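Posted in: Structural Biology > Protein-Ligand Complexes

Title: Requesting predicted complex, flavin-adenine dinucleotide in pocket

I'd be grateful if someone could produce the 3D structure tokens for the following input. Sequence and ligand are given below.
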Amino acid sequence: MAKQPMLKFVTVERDMPEKRSADVRNDDFLEIYAPFIKAKAEEQASRCSQCGVPYCQSHCPLHNNIPDWLNMTATGRLEEAYAISQATNTFPEICGRICPQDRLCEGGCVIENSGHGTVTIGAVEKYITDTAWENGWVKPITPLAERAESVGIIGAGPGGLAAADMLRRAGVQVTVYDRYDRAGGLLTYGIPGFKLEKDVVMKRNTQLTDSGVTLKLNCNVGEDISFDEIRAAHDAVIIATGVYKSRDLGGPGAGAKGIVKALDYLTASNRLNFGDTVPEYDSGELNADGKKVVVIGGGDTAMDCVRTAIRQGAESVKCLYRRDRANMPGSQRETQNAEEEGVVFEWLAAPKGFTGDAVDGVMVQRMRLGAPDASGRQSPEVIEGADYVEEADLVIKALGFEPEDLPTLWNQPDLPVTRWGTVKAEFTTGATDLDGVYAVGDIVRGASLGVWAIRDGRDCAEAILKKFDAAKAVAAE
Ligand SMILES: Cc1cc2nc3c(=O)[nH]c(=O)nc-3n(C[C@H](O)[C@H](O)[C@H](O)COP(=O)(O)OP(=O)(O)OC[C@H]3O[C@@H](n4cnc5c(N)ncnc54)[C@H](O)[C@@H]3O)c2cc1C
Ligand code: SF4
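-- Reply #1 --
Done. Output follows.
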């Protein structure tokens, strides 16, 4: 009888790929986890219990066929594992790196819930597709036949690019417009290299252009080309512009020099790591070197800022958050990584204002958690008489993002938006009330996750293809 390759969770402990020590990783922007070696990936994949009803799959926004590709990995059938993984996920190696797995697939893992420690699903997913790239299994798309229909996609983030990939596979003519000089959206300019090295994203961009997708970069829709022109040039248009308006802070001194926005700071750092000239970094405006840095916020963007500041050589890095650790929105894994790297967290601390013409301190109010609100979340309340000043010569605001006002910017009063400014679109298809206009990703959901943008892009492409096919069938009658 063949040896049972799976269900090893009873004898094999959960083990992540080796994490580089903080004193080594603090000196560079490379990913903090070393790649799995083959034997380790096979061993970790073999822990899967091959559930009949796989909760990991239902907790993954893409419903990836996880038990199957874990089985293929454990039995050394990596090319098949790659084919299964790529069939449901446009960018598996990216999701393997950046998904908050503890809240998604691994959070649903049955062996985790029985106390054995989850299968390292994300790390194996990354391993499979990294190996596929190394072996030349990832190829440009060659559609079986070309189609006459064309789709214009505004925004080259994961949502727009996932749609581009699916449409191109079906032979559709695809043009992606983006105001940046490189495609990838926040994968390129938001998320730092220590979570996602940039060559991983650039390889995917090249794969798409090699597949016949046209990328029109440095093209700001609303300025360089109008939305109406794009609509007239294509049979369908997908809006995938993400959310970029930073939430702001008021209070005395809020306009002082040295108080900067998180995305400006992270973009400058990512550009520098591409080798670009970044005057705002050279001038010191967006450079933490030698400074006392205070980051305000408790989400993943704040975690990316504090860890970037450490790598830029800050004298000290503090993170202020108005709730406590248990109530922060950012992932616990990233908070732990930040602490290992030397970041100090000031929980239950909210900014009230700033001191200095060029900022030299943050006026901080101490908070406590009060009664739960309607959503069940405890609201922070000020502790009177406990204010203090936190020294700072660079303050980074990481308080979240909102959508830009697209109907005004694009002169499209009929583009339907919600009261939060996100585009109103059907979640399953991305269709808006404007004929032939779709929307996907953060611009629909508000600030969310890469994997959800991919899911939206794929669903939307499928809906557009159905519509094209239906129109063809009518024309043929
Ligand atoms: C700092 C940071 C860290 C994050 N970390 C994670 C993480 O670890 N894991 C995770 O899953 N998610 C993370 N996210 C969230 C994730 O990056 C987003 O949810 C995802 O990128 C959204 O994809 P999208 O395609 O909707 O938009 P985006 O990635 O924002 O792409 C939108 C694109 O549209 C372009 N665009 C906008 N307006 C125009 C216009 N008028 N004309 C032309 N082009 C335009 C932009 O230049 C951009 O390239 C993070 C976000 C940030 C800010
Ligand atoms: S895409 Fe994300 S949630 Fe789905 S299996 Fe991969 S890491 Fe898990």
